[in-house]
């Protein structure tokens, strides 16, 4: 074949439709639509895309908000009007169309086009009320809603194909959330964030990934046997703290007593406080044989019940590889902490962290129970490679004493390196 013939052939246009769609999907939707001007062959190639992702880059931004809103609405409406075939993914990320009636029409259109993934990420302003047509999207596998009002009709039984659910600042009743979760038998990933005073029981037999963030009055994992990773951040008001203190049930057992396959656990603010409330932790009903990474933030080392929660968790995790803990001790209270016999009474004499390689301790104050905890880890971690310790910013005078005491501790691992990190 002559070079001139190769140059004259339109090699891209002759590619299989699946490859062309893969190329167009990687372009911003505005650029994908603009390929229609390339030639007659390309006029409607974009129109069969199954993934449509819209944001404010779809239009030319200006200081005239109304002009931007009108331009975005017209672009999305025209794109949907000219589209051919199924739409498997629709994503809208914008701060301009918070409560736009056109969104209702788009969702009605999508509910008739085999929509599988729906992401509505709307900004500040009046909350968008999700229309009832959304609950007719029987093939949904992913649903992400940001700043929406969500009220399923009484006849709604759940999304039978849904695998991922993310609700961020969504107005919805606790009963509706629990019913929704229970009505999604294939649910594998659940994220709930910025909820107020929410009491929640989660029943999701196929759930693998869980992220919770907000003011939770109560959380119970009643049926989550396949859970492998979770991240929990709890914000505690005075009312919720009082509610917690009156609780008699053991939160540790209710929350972590039925997750034997857990591999990664991240607990943020107030998480260990929440787990410590209720009856004495005592013996745990399960061993976390798969748990490899634990991160616990703002552990109060003057609270013996919080310390016990940490000990019970890690001593029941025989394959733990990485441990990260940050402190939040009231230094004056923790310095006077009584009952240092606690460590002999509560730490198993035969405990060995055979797989533990990396330990990070941050915001340490050098108070007695913190130091005893570090001493316990060093003495029982024969495979330890690195322990890094960062004192909190308020500890200045005691840093040298902390370092001297650390160097005296016996290490089960001859290779263990202690890094004392001072910012």
TrEMBL record:
Source species, domain of life: Eukaryota
SUPFAM superfamilies noted in UniProt: F-box domain (SSF81383), RNI-like (SSF52047)
Domain F-box, chain residue ranges per copy: 9-43
SMART domains: FBD
Gene3D superfamilies: Ribonuclease Inhibitor
UniProt name for this protein: F-box domain-containing protein
Naturally occurring in which organism (per UniProt): Gossypium arboreum (Tree cotton)
Lineage of producing organism: Eukaryota, Viridiplantae, Streptophyta, Embryophyta, Tracheophyta
């Amino acid at each position: 074949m002559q070079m001139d013939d190769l140059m004259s052939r339109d090699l891209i246009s002759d590619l299989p439709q699946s490859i062309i769609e893969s190329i167009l999907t990687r372009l911003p939707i505005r650029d994908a639509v603009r390929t229609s001007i390339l030639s007659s062959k390309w006029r409607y190639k974009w129109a069969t895309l199954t993934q449509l992702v819209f944001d404010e880059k779809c239009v030319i931004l200006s200081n005239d908000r109304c002009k931007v809103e009108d331009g975005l609405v017209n672009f999305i409406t025209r794109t949907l009007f000219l589209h051919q075939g199924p739409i498997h993914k629709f994503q809208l990320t914008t701060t301009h169309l918070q409560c736009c009636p056109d969104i209702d029409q788009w969702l009605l259109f999508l509910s008739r086009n085999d929509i599988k993934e729906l992401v509505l990420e709307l900004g500040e302003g009046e909350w968008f009320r999700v229309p009832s047509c959304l609950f007719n999207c029987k093939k949904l596998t992913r649903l992400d809603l940001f700043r929406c009002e969500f009220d399923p009709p009484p006849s709604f039984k759940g999304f039978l194909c849904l695998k991922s659910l993310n609700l961020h600042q969504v107005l919805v009743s606790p009963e509706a959330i629990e019913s929704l979760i229970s009505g999604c038998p294939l649910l594998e990933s659940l994220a709930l964030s910025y909820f107020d005073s929410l009491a929640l029981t989660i029943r999701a037999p196929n759930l693998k990934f869980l992220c919770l963030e907000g003011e939770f009055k109560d959380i119970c994992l009643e049926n989550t046997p396949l859970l492998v990773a979770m991240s929990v951040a709890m914000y505690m008001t005075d009312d919720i703290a009082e509610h917690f203190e009156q609780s008699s049930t053991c939160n540790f057992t209710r929350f972590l007593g039925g997750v034997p396959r857990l591999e990664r656990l991240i607990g943020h603010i107030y998480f260990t406080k929440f787990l410590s409330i209720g009856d004495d932790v005592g013996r745990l009903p399960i061993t976390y044989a798969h748990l490899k990474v634990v991160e616990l933030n703002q552990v109060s080392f003057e609270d013996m019940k919080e310390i016990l929660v940490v000990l019970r968790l890690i001593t029941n995790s025989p394959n733990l590889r990485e441990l990260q803990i940050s402190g939040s001790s009231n230094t004056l209270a923790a310095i006077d902490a009584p009952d240092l016999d606690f460590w002999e009474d509560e730490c198993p004499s035969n405990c060995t962290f055979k797989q533990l390689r990396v330990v990070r301790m941050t915001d340490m104050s050098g108070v007695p129970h913190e130091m005893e905890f570090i001493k316990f880890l060093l003495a029982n971690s024969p495979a330890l490679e690195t322990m890094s310790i960062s004192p909190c910013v308020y500890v200045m005078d005691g840093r040298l004493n902390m370092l001297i005491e650390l160097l005296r501790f016996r290490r089960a691992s001859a290779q263990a390196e202690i890094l004392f990190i001072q910012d």
